[in-house]
Design brief:
The protein is mostly beta strands and 344 residues long. Helix content is 4%, strand content 27%. The longest helix has 6 residues. The chain is globular.
C-alpha cells in the first residue's frame, strides 16, 4: 500500500467577511451533582459545510450513499495530525469482522498484514484466479490466528470521496468553505465507579448533560443546528443542519491489562487514531455502524506511556445522524482550541 503525501490547500478568491476566534478551556473529569456518577467532558470541533446542491456547496456532502468503506484514508495520520486521503473508493464492508466476544472490529487491525501489492506465484498482483484487482485483501496466512468471525470485503467501483484536495478541507478551517465551532461533549458513567463512559445522541441523560442537544427537531447528533451556514433546506422544511464534520483530540496513559476499550456506533464516516495509527475505520456514507478497539490487542502500545487519540467524524447526508461513544479509557483534555466563523 503506497502512502501519498498530504496536500496543503491554498484557496484563492475567497473573501473573509468575518472571523471570530474562540478559546475554550476543557475541564478534566468531574463529578456529577449526585456525587456518585462521574462525567467526562471532551471538546469537539464541528465544521459546517454546504450541501453539494447548494451555492458554493461541497461535493462530498449530500452526494453519496451506500455501505461502510474501509481504506479511504491512510493508516497513519499526516504531519498535521489530520487524516490523509488514500483512495476515493476503498473496499466495501459487506459483512463485519467480529472478535471472540462478538464485537465488530477493524479487520486491518484484527488481522495484521495486507497483501495488496505483493505478486503471487501466477504473477498477479492480487492473488485472484481471474486476475481482477483485489487490493487490500487481508493476508490469508494470518486468518487462522483470528479467533473471531471473518467478514467480507469487496472492491467497489463507486466513489465515496471526490478528491484529495476536497477531503483535505474536512478537518481544516477553510474560509468560504466551512465554519468551525467548539462544543462540549459530555460523557457519563454507566454506573457509579464503573469507569465506563457513554455519550449517546439518542440518550436522555446525554440531552440533560449537553445543553446544545435541547429542543432539536428530531433525535440525533445535530451539534450546530441553526448555526453556521444554516439548516439544510432540502429536508424537512429546513429544520436541521445535516452537513458537518466533527474532530475530537484527547490523550491518555495506557495501562496494560486495565481493560481499556473504545467503541463507536453511528454514521457517517468515522476514523479513530491512537498514537497516530488508525484503529477504527468506518468510512463512507452509510447507515449506523459499529466498531470497537481493545487496546490490549495493540502490541505496539507501551505500558505507562502517554498516547494521543484523534477522532474524526463526518455527517454527510440526510436523513439520520447517529453518534455514540462508549469507552473505559481515562481520557484527558488538551487545554484550549481555536475556532472561526467565516463566510464568503
Amino acid at each position: 500500500m503506497k502512502k501519498p503525501s498530504s496536500t496543503h490547500l491554498a484557496i484563492a478568491g475567497v473573501v473573509l467577511a468575518a472571523a471570530v476566534v474562540a478559546v475554550v478551556t476543557v475541564p478534566t473529569r468531574t463529578t456529577a451533582s449526585s456525587g456518585t456518577i462521574a462525567t467526562l467532558e471532551l471538546t469537539a470541533i464541528v465544521r459546517d459545510f454546504r450541501a453539494a446542491s447548494e451555492r458554493n456547496g461541497h461535493p462530498d456532502f449530500q452526494a453519496f450513499a451506500g455501505r461502510v468503506h474501509l481504506g479511504l484514508v491512510e493508516p497513519e495520520l499526516g504531519p498535521e495530525n489530520k487524516p490523509v486521503f488514500r483512495d476515493s473508493r476503498g473496499w466495501e464492508l459487506r459483512d463485519p469482522w467480529l472478535d471472540h466476544r462478538g464485537l465488530a472490529v477493524n479487520p486491518f487491525v484484527a488481522v495484521e498484514g495486507i497483501a495488496d501489492e505483493d505478486e503471487d506465484e501466477d504473477g498477479d498482483e492480487d492473488g485472484d484466479e481471474d486476475g481482477e484487482e483485489s487490493a487490500g485483501l487481508l493476508d490469508l496466512d494470518r486468518l487462522d490466528a483470528f479467533s473471531g468471525t471473518v467478514g467480507t470485503l469487496r472492491t467497489d467501483a463507486s466513489e465515496r470521496l471526490t478528491s484529495r484536495e476536497r477531503f483535505d478541507q474536512w478537518y481544516r478551517d477553510v474560509p468560504g468553505v466551512n465554519m468551525s465551532f467548539a462544543i462540549p461533549l459530555v460523557l457519563e458513567e454507566t454506573e457509579p465507579g464503573s469507569g465506563r463512559f457513554v455519550y449517546d445522541s439518542h440518550g436522555a441523560r446525554s440531552v440533560e448533560l449537553n445543553p446544545w442537544m435541547a429542543d432539536l427537531p428530531i433525535s440525533g447528533f445535530f451539534p450546530i443546528n441553526g448555526r453556521g451556514f444554516g439548516n439544510f433546506a432540502g429536508y424537512d422544511g429546513g429544520s436541521t443542519n445535516f452537513h458537518f464534520t466533527t474532530e475530537v483530540v484527547t490523550t491518555f496513559t495506557y495501562r496494560r491489562g486495565a481493560g481499556y476499550v473504545f467503541g463507536f456506533s453511528g454514521d457517517d464516516d468515522l476514523w479513530v487514531f491512537i498514537g497516530g495509527r488508525l484503529v477504527i475505520d468506518l468510512g463512507g456514507v452509510h447507515p449506523e455502524a459499529t466498531q470497537w478497539i481493545d487496546l490490549d490487542t495493540l502490541d505496539w502500545l507501551a505500558d505507562g506511556e502517554e498516547y494521543s487519540m484523534h477522532i474524526f467524524h463526518a455527517e454527510r447526508r440526510t436523513v439520520q445522524s447517529n453518534f455514540r461513544i462508549e469507552t473505559t479509557i481515562p481520557l484527558r483534555p488538551l487545554g484550549s482550541v481555536s475556532t472561526f466563523d467565516a463566510f464568503d
